[in-house]
Amino acid sequence: MKTIIIDGANGYVASNFINKLLEQKYKVIALVRPSVKFSPTERMAEALTKSGDGKYVNMDNLKVLGYSLLHKDFLIPQKQLEEIFSEEVDYFHFAASLKFDLKSKEEIFETNVGGVANSINVFSKFAKGYSRFFFIGTAYSCGRFSGRFEEKFYPNEDIGKFRNYYEQSKRVAENIVKENIDKNGLNGHVIRLSQVVGNNKTGVTKTDYGIFDFAKRIHSLAFRNPNQTVRVHVDPFSTQNLIPVDTVINYLQRTVEVKHVPTIMNFIAKNQVKNIHIIKSINRLLPIDIVPEKQLARHEMNALERIISAGMTFTESYIDTNLLFDTSNLDQILMVDGHEANENSVHKMLEYFFDNLATQKRKRAMISAL
């Protein structure tokens, strides 16, 4: 079976993908940044245990290497790079900065644009034969696009066309891939993910991104200020494009299995979930009554509502979205039946998420009491 190389391998989607690949007996090479406290191998093992919800992971076919995304040859010795690229591989570039604000602009573009350019350089230098390079982008590179966002490249645009610098950086990165395809013959592909949530079957949710970041903040406030009614600046009938992590992993696995795949694929949900349904689930699960209001100015908020609003700096950009995406390539080429998130499965994910937060809180209290 072919070798799969993955950078940013200890991230949420990447670690779930690796778990699946190892189950299928693929040989996986995981590129992971070392941290101050933990080695790349320790970070990878922790991520796999977390994504597997504590289940045993057979790591016999996994090789973990420390790397530096922005340095020449990743600061990996040339002999080692020649070894890991000695046969045809599929290379998945997951590494990214999830920051979005103006003060982080330099870091965002350095990581999300410079990182993909350097990864392509390493891949192009060492890859053999029909090796393929997959850039994991975001469906939100659409920015403030109106209409159906097609599975094609779009030109770079100024920040006014996007909600934040994260979206803009991902559009620029896509065009780095395009330039290398056009000029250098890169066997490159772009996979755009929408908002990845928990497991649609089990409810297991190990991400605190997107709606779960909002839910985490509400959870904290609800138990410090129980039984309050709070208004939030949200259009109740706008939608969130939520794709379950198990669906994403099935799509990624199919991508590995198929020899010829489209250049761009939108991995998105066709059936979106309304904000009001997410809020109703939170209200049922927590001692709080959230009231969504499409028109709610900051000066109209009470102290608690302003605290919530301050924590919604990123989420608030997506309170009124009803995005449309083309999936022709995904449907006709990969032919994978996805399992869509719905009101019931999202409620199950939120329930798991809140239970997990409560468990972590009890553990911290026990440790403090020792």
Binned, the helix content reads: 40-55%
Count of alpha/pi helices: 11
The global form is: globular
**Unreliable runs, pLDDT <50, ≥5 residues?**
none
- Derived structural class: alpha/beta
Write down the overall mean pLDDT. Answer: 94
Largest sheet data: 7 strands, parallel
CATH fold node name of the largest domain:
Rossmann fold
The spatial strand order of the largest sheet comes to: 3-2-1-4-5-7-12
- Identify the CATH architecture of the largest domain: 3-Layer(aba) Sandwich
**Name given to the CATH homologous superfamily of the largest domain:** NAD(P)-binding Rossmann-like Domain
Instruction: Determine and state the CATH class of the largest domain.
Output: Alpha Beta
Strand content: 15-25%
How many angstroms does the end-to-end distance come to? 50 Å
Task: Work out the count of structural domains.
Answer: 2
Order of helices and strands: EHEHEHEHEEHEEHEEEHEEHEHEHH
Number of E-state strands:
15
Radius of gyration: 21 Å
List the helices and strands and how they pair.
Elements: E1 3-7, H1 12-23, E2 27-32, H2 40-51, E3 62-66, H3 78-84, E4 89-93, H4 105-126, E5 132-138, E6 148-149, H5 165-184, E7 188-193, E8 195-197, H6 211-224, E9 228-233, E10 239-240, E11 242-244, H7 245-257, E12 264-267, E13 273-274, H8 275-285, E14 288-293, H9 303-310, E15 324-325, H10 328-334, H11 343-369
Parallel strand pairs: 1-2, 1-4, 2-3, 4-5, 5-7, 6-15, 7-12, 8-11, 9-14
Antiparallel strand pairs: 10-13
Helix pairs in contact: 1-2, 1-7, 4-5, 6-11, 8-11
